[in-house]
Amino acid sequence: MSSNVRALDRARLSPAEAVRPERAEVEAAIRTVIRWAGDDPGRDGLIETPARVARAFEEYFAGYAQDPAEILQKTFEEIEGYDEMIVLRGIGFESHCEHHMAPIVGHAWVAYVPNGRVVGISKLARVVEVYARRLQIQEKMTAQIANTINDVLKPQGVGVIVKASHHCMTTRGVHKPDSDLVTSRMLGCFRDNPATRQEFLAMAD
Ligand SMILES: [Zn+2]
Fold first, then answer.
1. Whether residue 168 lies in the annotated active site
2. Residue 82: phi, psi to the nearest 5?
3. Residue 1 has pLDDT above 80, yes or no
4. CB-side exposure of 53: number of CA atoms within 13 Å?
5. Which residue among 47, 68, 194, 201 has the highest number of C-beta atoms inside a 10 angstrom radius?
6. Cα angle at 16 between 11 and 19, to 5 degrees?
7. Who contacts 43 (Cβ-Cβ below 8 Å, separation ≥6)?
8. Strand pairing of 135-136 and 86-97?
9. pTM of the full predicted structure?
């Protein structure tokens, strides 16, 4: 499934679009936005801004250059038959919504029940980070994290819960600063076994 997802990612770009623009083009675009906002990109305080924004965007969108399936390749099998839930709680992330490029700031809870092998716990956080550092909608990001762990580790089940505030509706639009969005994806035993699902939901409360 994850290789299908990657194939789809590639298919979406036409050959012309797949050529990455030069940094100078990106900086010129930022100068255009500044002029359009009503300011002078040539004044002292703004002269370095396009270069800084380009560097910031490089960081925000670093996830396109990373393969989340590869992060999960190294696993450990000496686990003495451990087969209970493993939960990494409250993984902080920052992402950007694909509709407004506005920040999405929140936390993810990632759980799985292993099937003979486990992965280094920091790797779960890195999978969240790779998908967060792309243009996203929260629903898709939640599914991508769960699907990737499920496809690569082939555990007994996976649960992912994401809670995040969306700046496109907290600082603009309907201006609801205290709202957050909760999404989840449950696979395998998290979907089929109500007790497992409940145990995980209680940990993410
Ligand atoms: Zn948005």
1. yes
2. -55, 125
3. no
4. 17
5. 68
6. 90
7. none
8. parallel
9. 0.89
- Give me the phi and psi of 146, to 5 degrees please: -65, -45
How confident is the model over 79-124, as pLDDT tens digits? 999 999 999 999 999 999 999 999 999 999 999 999 999 999 999 9
Q: pLDDT grade, residue 16 (50/70/90)?
A: low
Nearest to 54 by CA among 20, 36, 29: 29
At residue 24, the 3 state secondary structure works out as: helix
What's the CA-to-centroid distance between 174 and ligand 1, angstroms? 11
98 is catalytic: yes
80 catalytic, yes or no? Answer: no
Q: What sign does the CA torsion over 164, 13, 146, 153 have?
A: negative
Q: How far is the CA of 176 from the centre of ligand 1 (A)?
A: 13
CB 88 within 8 A of CB 127: no
Distance 181 CA to ligand 1 centre (A): 12
Secondary structure (DSSP) of 169-199: HHSSTT--TT--EEEEEEEEHHHH-HHHHHH
pLDDT, averaged across the chain: 92
Is 107 a catalytic site residue?
Answer: no
The enclosing H or E element of 161 equals strand 157-166
Work out whether the CA dihedral 166, 144, 54, 10 comes out positive or negative. Answer: negative
Is 189 catalytic? The answer is no
